[in-house]
Amino acid sequence: MPREIKSQQDIGTVTAVAAANAPSDYKDRLVKLIPSEIVTAYITLQGLISGHLANQRLYLSIAFTCLLILTPIYLKNVSAVTKFGQIVFTTLAFVIWVMASGGFKILFPNTAIFDDNFLGSMILVIYTLAIPFVYKG
Fold this sequence. Notes:
elongated
């Protein structure tokens, strides 16, 4: 399944369009706006760093920054996503996933808003379910 979201404008007229070329529906957009590979990489690095390294905040900051920069590059070059909006929404989704996984609590320990994962989890659920309604490609 290609990663880029297809809009009605990308398809053109629907008369002779096969089902595979149909615009992405809500469910397709939902899946395609989750940066699963990048989130998996961050959670893996977070586990490795938290369990084995001193100065965890520095290493997690480096991992977060590198993956944040890598997200749009990965989407463009590996997943062949060309739509700027999809790249922006997916990159923002990565930040929210890190927030929900407790990464901001480690990265910003003196900030009360990140004391627990509750806020990040709430934002993650709302963002993940709402963005496919907003962004249609």
